[in-house]
Design goal:
Elements lengths: L2 H16 L5 E2 L6 E2 L5 H19 L5 H17 L8 E5 L6 E4 L3 E5 H6 L3 H16 L2 H22 L7 H33 L5 H18 L13 H19 L8 H7 L4 E2 L7 E3 L2 E4 L4 E4 L5 E4 L4 E4 L5 E7 L5 H11 L3 E10 L2 E13 L6 E13 L2 E10 L3 H12 L3 E2 L3 H4 L4 E7 L4 E2 H7 L7 H7 L7 E2 L4 E6 L1
Parallel strand pairs: 3-5
Antiparallel strand pairs: 1-2, 4-5, 6-18, 7-8, 8-9, 9-17, 10-11, 11-12, 12-16, 13-14, 14-15, 15-16, 18-21, 19-20
């Protein structure tokens, strides 16, 4: 490459970097930070994410909990570092124990995490933590750093022929760097969660207690927890100690001994909340997927894993060489849906036929998609078997997908699942009910194990309920204490 060409490329790179907005002042630290995104763009990005998050998980309808979270979230927002930002709070219909935030003021909590809180203070601490991610602009900042890192990496590849062979290693190095930032962000959000929850009068030590629950969950599931340096989040045990120290420091600085916990009030709010998977939204039993609300069923390929979400059902073998995707079409007829899918996915139709599946009008299409490998230039063929089934005013769609060379090995499996789609009429399957959190008052003083036995809890469920209540089975409980049980 000639020297003049190199200088020209460098000039273009420098010009691109100069287009980056000037460093913004972080609302939390008061220090300048790189930011490629304005607050208006951040808000717009959150508004774009929100419908996708809701469509992916679904909303959990609980007016009392929703009202409580919005009320407390508004209180936190007023004393936060970004009090003028409009915040939005969502409860997601997912059993996963999770809470997260996206740019622009959107905070999400799953019903799974709400079921595992044992008092208001735990909820408020985690809510403050997620608000901390927003007030400190962690997501927006992270995206800005990645954009600049990619820009500099591309610039290096442009300027130096020798640098290109090291590009993959450089990219891996930047990912490790940003992993460190992610851990720092989590710790900063822990700090902000303590600060915000304490400032509105809650005991932030309870936030530490919830990290203790997470620590016990990890120990039970992975025999020792997650090593600190192998996770994008700090180890729960480390967070427990750090949050406890910060909570004490903040409480001492505010010179008060009256900190809100509100255990009984919170437990009464979650009385009846769905616990675990909700079978009304689909469940597998003896190799059959049942959907009581939409009243259909179909067989799951033997040995395949199934993932169910409001958007679609995905099934795949452990080797990942094939997949069946089941979803709902927007069109009113099978023919319209088939035509739209072929066009939108850029498929080439190999065969099309009209059949009936258990008396339901169906369009069956075999198709393929041929693409070129960008690295090798070789052609790649993916084959698809699709069933478009009209049922109860909707069109249900199966796609069986595999590579061209493997497709014939899975064709019979695809057809067995798709051709056995049928109406669900069995009362026992239609009337299935989800498990729910049931709040009960301890009848007699004794150990938690004694109290659970008095309610007829089986021995194999004891440890799960001890964890759910964040207690030990040998711990003493007084008569009248509220505890969580699991019932229908």
């Amino acid at each position: 490459m000639k020297k003049r060409q190199v200088l020209s490329k460098l000039a273009l790179l420098i010009a691109a970097i100069l287009l980056i907005p000037s460093c913004a002042v972080n609302p939390v630290t008061g220090k300048k930070q790189l930011m490629l995104m304005t607050e208006e763009q951040e808000i717009e990005l959150g508004a774009q994410y929100d419908p996708t998050v809701i469509a992916t998980f679904g909303l959990y309808e609980n007016p009392d909990l929703q009202t409580f979270i919005e009320k407390k979230g508004t209180e936190l927002a007023k004393i936060s570092h970004r009090p003028n930002l409009e915040y939005h709070f969502r409860i997601l219909d997912s059993p996963v124990i999770n809470a997260f935030a996206v740019p622009g003021g959107y905070i999400y909590m799953t019903r799974g995490i709400l079921a595992h809180f044992n008092n208001e203070a735990e909820l408020i601490g985690v809510l403050g933590h997620e608000m901390g991610h927003i007030t400190a602009r962690h997501t927006a900042s992270q995206q800005s750093k990645q954009q600049l890192g990619q820009l500099l990496l591309v610039g290096g590849m442009i300027v130096s022929e020798d640098f290109r062979q090291f590009a993959d290693y450089a990219m891996q190095g930047m990912q490790l760097l940003f992993l460190k930032f992610s851990r720092d962000n989590e710790r900063q959000s822990d700090k902000l969660g303590v600060e915000y929850s304490t400032k509105i009068g809650y005991d932030a030590h309870k936030m530490a207690d919830f990290f203790h629950v997470l620590d016990k969950m990890q120990m039970e599931s992975e025999s020792g927890g997650i090593p600190t340096f192998y996770s994008t989040h700090p180890d729960p045990g480390d967070r427990y100690n750090d949050v406890n120290q910060r909570a004490t420091s903040w409480q001492d600085s505010l010179n008060s001994n009256n900190w809100t916990v509100n255990e009984d009030n919170y437990l009464r709010m979650i009385d009846g909340i769905v616990y675990g998977e909700d079978p009304r939204q689909g469940y597998v039993e003896s190799g059959i997927f049942y959907h009581p609300e939409m009243k259909f069923k179909f067989p799951v390929p033997s040995g395949w894993q199934l993932e169910n979400s409001p958007l679609q059902v995905q099934m795949a073998p452990s080797d990942g060489k094939a997949a069946v995707i089941f979803t709902l079409a927007k069109q009113k007829t099978a023919a319209e849906a088939a035509q739209t899918v072929v066009q939108e996915l850029n498929l080439t139709t190999l065969e099309s036929r009209n059949v009936t599946v258990n008396g339901l009008p169906t369009v069956v299409i075999s198709s393929q998609q041929v693409s070129q490998n960008e690295q090798t230039g070789a052609e790649q063929t993916i084959k698809v078997l699709s069933y478009f089934i009209e049922y109860s005013g909707s069109v249900y769609v199966f796609h069986g997908v595999s590579s061209g060379e493997n497709f014939s090995n899975y064709l019979q499996t695809f057809e067995l699942t798709m051709s056995n789609f049928n109406r669900l009429t069995e009362a026992s399957k239609l009337n299935v009910k989800p498990k729910r959190i049931k709040i009960q008052s301890v009848r007699n003083s004794g150990t938690l194990a004694d109290a659970l036995k008095a309610f007829g809890v089986s021995q194999n469920q004891m440890n799960e309920l001890a964890l759910l209540n964040n207690m030990e089975l040998t711990e003493q409980v007084s008569r009248g204490k509220l505890i969580k049980l699991i019932g229908d």
